[in-house]
Amino acid sequence: MIRFDGVGFGFGRPARANILNSIRLTISDGEWVAVTGANGTGKSVLCKLMAGLYRPDSGVVLVDGEDPRSAAGPDGGPSVGIAFQNPDSQFVTSTVRREILFGLENIGIGGAERESRALEAAELFDLEPFLGRNPHMLSGGEKQRLLLASIWAMRPRHVILDEPFSFLDAAGRRRALEMVRRSFHDEGRTVVWATLDPGELELADRVICLDGGEIIFDGGSEEALSSIPDGILTELRPTGSKGSKGGGIGDGTEFAPAEAGLTPSGPVVMKLDNARISYREGDFGLDIEELTLSKGEVLGLTGPSGSGKTTLLLGCSGLVTVERGQLRLFGERVASKKDFPAGRIAFLFQSPEDGFFAPTVAEEVALGHRRFGDGRPDDEAARDALARVGLDPERFMSRSPFHLSQGEKRLVALASQLVLPAEFVLLDEPALFLDARARARLIQALEGLISSGVTIALASHDTPLIESLATRTRML
Ligand SMILES: Nc1ncnc2c1ncn2[C@@H]1O[C@H](COP(=O)(O)OP(=O)(O)OP(=O)(O)O)[C@@H](O)[C@H]1O
Ligand SMILES: [Mg+2]
Q: What mean pLDDT is predicted for residues 224-247?
């Protein structure tokens, strides 16, 4: 049993600024519970309190009647297993195999038992082809499967998963959730997972929603879907609107601009010819016969996890040099890093928070502006960009970008790109981790760019997002 008795937590802030306030909650053994709430409402904090990674400022958290840090599982291992929201931050070894073995070693399981459990886990979560690969070199969905496998191998009694399927599309999530149900819930383990996806909530037995430091809803999934306030849940299932007219996403072909007025006629912004895009390490490569983007076009890139969406974006931007064939940007050939049209291109990476390095949000956002911006004072530009993505400048300017919720980090990264006077904007999974309100603001900000003639390439598993913005799609 997991029990919260009057739990308050605030990262050492004064009690009135608490993130969670006197939370009372009991989760019985074997329950199947989804936790939701807008960005920054404390879902991840709640998860970490359950796993004993944070200690409450007031009240107590008990797992099986004990402090979660000392509560022991069936094998003497930890009673609670947790998967973090950002998988990269959890990996400690250099191969998938060692990563699974590491957890077992830590709880004192050795020899043949250790090997056989690790193999079984790899098989169950489809990781056999990657056993020798560096965990950081997996696709997002593969990384999340590795976290699940590592937890499964340790057989904890309670399993806490912080947005465990965020890198998957709607169909992939359903399959992954089924896999988790079979391998953990059906074996009698408690499963608590955080999510913003109504499709996942639908499948929960119990839903908990956080807001303003409190539990504002605790009940069944049907009631949850009708009573959770707007602005939180983000629907990922295709709506079948606009974009699908011209053939649709998912049939592997490009579709023509839905309305005749959208026929590209402006100058060519980006052109790839007979290009091979690949990395110095590894054997993954992508061959692109031809891809041309004209001014004002919005290209949506879709395709399953691991299909090369990120690679294509890197190739079109000149950030990865094409090996064969050629890339032209704004009419000029880009053959090496020195030809890169700095300042004219903005790029939102899939894990932008990994590149943060300024001490404050204001400075992080203004970094590019300082070099390429329109001459306004840095603070003014940062303030404006933060407001555009919906982060209150008063609250966020002086915070550390490293100590934010995952959704807040994405918005800071987005602001740091929107502040550039770019003509070509590339975005890799820009809506990842965003609640419905933040996602709507993202769409609004991108529509603003589009109406001012900016060219966009957008890779995402979020079909409705692509449908609402793209003038063309290409599936990989
Ligand atoms: N290391 C930290 N130091 C200080 N404050 C933090 C830290 N991490 C998160 N916060 C703050 O705590 C609050 C709750 O964060 P948490 O990560 O639990 O939110 P969340 O509901 O998981 O959000 P998201 O949907 O973005 O993942 C936010 O206001 C966030 O800014
Ligand atoms: Mg979180």
A: 75
